[in-house]
Amino acid sequence: MSAPAPAAAAEAPKGGGKKKLIIIIAAVLVLVLGGGGAALMLMKKKAPVDGEEDGAETAHEAAPAHAPPKPGTPPVFVPLDPFTVNLSDKDVDRFAQIGITLEVMDAHTADQIKAYLPAIRSNVLMVLSHKTSGELLTREGKEKLAREVLRESVRPMGIELDDEDEEEPPADAPKKKKKKKKAHVESPVTKVLFSTFIVQ
């Protein structure tokens, strides 16, 4: 009677091993089917529905980098630290203290401008240091300075604006080779505003 007991004990682990194998295969199948179903759901979400999403993406990609702000939105201002600079008057020492604020298209452009502030300040200082008090005391001189500051404030970002102050040569002057006209470039800085303007 003691002989059949070991045989039954030997058969029990075989049966338990088959059950474990079936459970493992079932778990793997559930994982594979669940993963496949999830992948299928994600693919359906990404596919365009009647061309709606596809058209929206193309419209978004075609939008210009510097789209004009919507009407009614307030402008964004980037104030620069005040400039104090010696002017280039030859007969007497004169200096100017000028506060400048840049008006830009949007907050994103303001962040870009802030990233280039050291280079922008350097360019503006170079422009100011070549001015005389006589140039800065007239309205025309201030307007010309504003145009120059606008041009120099976008130069560090790789944007070259046309120099509107270049004079046309007189008709009797010898003709020089004509420069090719540059394509019009939209400036991210829309205005240069003076907050203080002291010349002494």
Fraction of residues in β-strands = 5-15%
Mean residue pLDDT: 75
Strand tally, please? 4
Q: What percent of the residues sit in helical stretches (DSSP H or I)?
A: 40-55%
Give the CA-CA distance, first to last residue.
Answer: 122 Å
- Poorly predicted parts: 47-65, 166-171
What overall geometry do the principal axes of the alpha carbons give? rod-shaped
Radius of gyration: 36 Å
Would you kindly provide a written description of the structure presented here, covering whatever features stand out?
This protein is 48% helix and 14% strand. It has helices spanning 4-46, 52-62, 107-115, 117-129, 133-137, 139-154, and strands at residues 76-79, 83-86, 95-104, 189-199. A hairpin with an 8-residue loop joins strand 2 (83-86) and strand 3. Helix 4 packs antiparallel against helix 6 (139-154). It is rod-shaped and about 105 Å long.
How would you summarize what this structure contains?
The protein has 200 residues and is α+β, with helices and mostly antiparallel strands. It has helices spanning 4-46, 52-62, 107-115, 117-129, 133-137, 139-154; strands at residues 76-79, 83-86, 95-104, 189-199. Helix 4 packs antiparallel against helix 6.
Which short descriptors sum up this protein?
200 residues, 48% helix, rod-shaped, 4-stranded antiparallel β-sheet, alpha+beta, 6 helices
